[in-house]
Amino acid sequence: MLRLERLACGYGPMRVVHGLDLEVAAGEVVALVGANGAGKSTTLMAIAGHVAVQDGTIRFEGRDLATALPHQRVAAGVALVPEGRRLFADLSVRENLLIGGYARPRGRTPANQETVLALMPRLAERLEQRAGSLSGGEQQMLAIGRALMAEPRLLLVDELSLGLMPKNVDLCYEAIAELKRRGLAILLVEQNTQKAFAVADRVTVLESGRPVWAGTAAEAREHPTLIEAYLGLATATDAPP
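-> structure tokens emitted (241 positions)
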């Protein structure tokens, strides 16, 4: 579904990601992991169209997206859950969801909203509440729900568990696992390797913007020294909840 070939991207003259090859198949979860500054978020932002592609290709369902505008990528079926949520804090939960569905016919909005609320019923209880007044976990659920309103076939998720209490991390990962069961392709950037490896099918490790290891999530779990060597984090078995 998604294929990156020799992707190089960055900001102005600065190159952050160098020669990344990566694939995500339909219905597959791929975890992109690495230490802070490794280029993970930059990769997602390049796929979503917010960071310039300096070399290589981004193909989604066979279509070259490297020069497509961000809204064209959303229309094509790619949606981003950005790091830090980036909600419209002064708007309600309902209004944030409506904004997420701007690229789809208005007639499909009610059904899409019901799908989101069934997946994350806590949002149904807070539809008229300001997004900025939600807890961190609820805000992350809303960020996921807003992206789902665009009817994506590929979901890009940046730092799902960042700043969340353990119980809210669990709730968000339950939602990701359910979306995987429904056949949604997901590219997941995550520092919490324990959670990421539990839901992912495959893992790619970035170091200083370069891919240094790729394999199945099972292989990554079996080689915890990999995490110590490349990520500078705790091992997968010792990662915080």
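Confidence is low (pLDDT under 50) at residues 233-241.
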